[in-house]
Automatic annotation (TrEMBL):
The chain holds residues 563 to 843 of 843 of the full protein. Residues 24-274 form the EAL domain. This is EAL domain-containing protein. It comes from Pseudooceanicola albus. GO terms for molecular function: catalytic activity. It comes from the Bacteria. The lineage of its organism: Bacteria, Pseudomonadati, Pseudomonadota, Alphaproteobacteria, Rhodobacterales.
């Protein structure tokens, strides 16, 4: 029951200040404080090729630091979107990812592609692409080192502006993936129109408690027949991995390999898997 009338300005329509509103405002305040204090850290979860067993990429997953605790994004992304702060948060995450990519370029992880999650709100922001390309240029990086993950939800309502932004991103050389695929089912015909390279099968089909084989098989078939790469998230056991590989999935992400790790820990993880030194001092 709160209407925003500008940054930090609110109009209360009800005299009673209910608990929910109170809680929402408190969360918003925490978020603003964290942005002011630069308290966000990005962790990286490796993506593994089923063919080679190698780390081919990493997903940037943001955490909010509060004292000694790390708050997971499930607790603040929605708030950020609703409070008009997601643009700022995305900028923080993308900048950290660029800094990391620039460092990784100098050593054995030079080919690792970093995936960044995008909120639909960012795609509606008119200067989003200019911002992103300016940031990249500042680090001397090129778009093909990055992938943006969008969810199907973005496409519901098929906003022509979003399609246009996605086309521009793809033309610039960014990769695009459809995240949590299979959970926001709307209309499959959009898959043809979209410049998306990769389908990421939602982990709810993979790991609770066992593989939902018919669904997974159908998604893999769909992705492959559209010449897309098919990635699964939430791989937790070796049995799941072998089943998914047999079904034709290309890459996987999950606790079987590693959770999202601080950047240096990811460097060590990669070094251990390939048996060479990290070379990042
Ligand atoms: P997502 O993009 O689908 O990311 C995958 C989530 O699944 C991550 O949770 C990851 O830690 C978790 N996960 C990975 N492997 C496994 C597994 O084997 N088992 C289980 N149980 N979980 C696994 P996390 O980091 O809490 O992120 C949650 C969601 O928050 C993400 O889902 C994404 O939608 C959103 N998010 C994270 N970072 C950002 C960001 O920078 N920007 C935006 N807009 N959203 C973000
Ligand atoms: Mg994701
Ligand atoms: Mg996902
Ligand atoms: Mg998911």
């Amino acid at each position: 029951e709160v209407k925003r009338t500008g940054r930090n300005a609110f109009l209360f329509h009800r005299p009673e200040f209910n608990a929910q509103t109170n809680e929402r405002l408190r969360q918003e305040r925490r978020l603003r404080t964290a942005l002011d204090r630069d308290s966000f850290v990005v962790h990286y979860q490796p993506r593994i090729s089923f063919d080679s067993g190698r780390v081919v990429g990493a997903e940037a997953l943001v955490r909010m630091r509060e004292g000694d605790t790390l708050i997971m994004p499930g607790a603040f992304i929605r708030v950020a979107e609703e409070a008009g702060l997601i643009g700022e948060l995305t900028r923080v995450v993308f900048r950290q990812a660029c800094r990391q990519a620039a460092r990784w370029r100098q050593g054995p992880l030079r080919d690792m592609r970093i995936s960044v999650n995008l909120s639909p709100v960012s795609l509606q922001q008119p200067d989003f692409i200019e911002e992103v390309t300016a940031e990249l240029a500042g680090f001397g990086l090129s778009p093909d080192q990055f992938e943006f993950e969008i969810t199907e939800g973005v496409l519901i309502g098929a906003n022509p502006r979003i399609q246009e932004q996605l086309d521009r991103l793809r033309d610039l050389g960014f990769r695009l993936s459809l995240d949590d695929f299979g959970t926001g089912f709307s209309n499959l015909s959009y898959l043809r129109r979209l410049p998306v390279d990769t389908l990421k099968i939602d982990r709810s089909f993979v790991s609770q408690p066992e593989l939902d084989r018919p669904i997974v098989e159908a998604i893999i078939g769909l992705g492959r027949s559209l010449q897309m790469k098919v990635v699964v998230e939430g791989v937790e056991t070796g049995d799941q991995e072998s089943a998914l590989r047999r079904l034709g999935c290309h890459e996987g992400q999950g606790f079987l390999y590693a959770p999202a790790l601080p950047a240096e820990a990811l460097e060590l993880f990669c070094a251990e898997r390939t048996g060479c030194a990290t070379a990042y001092g």
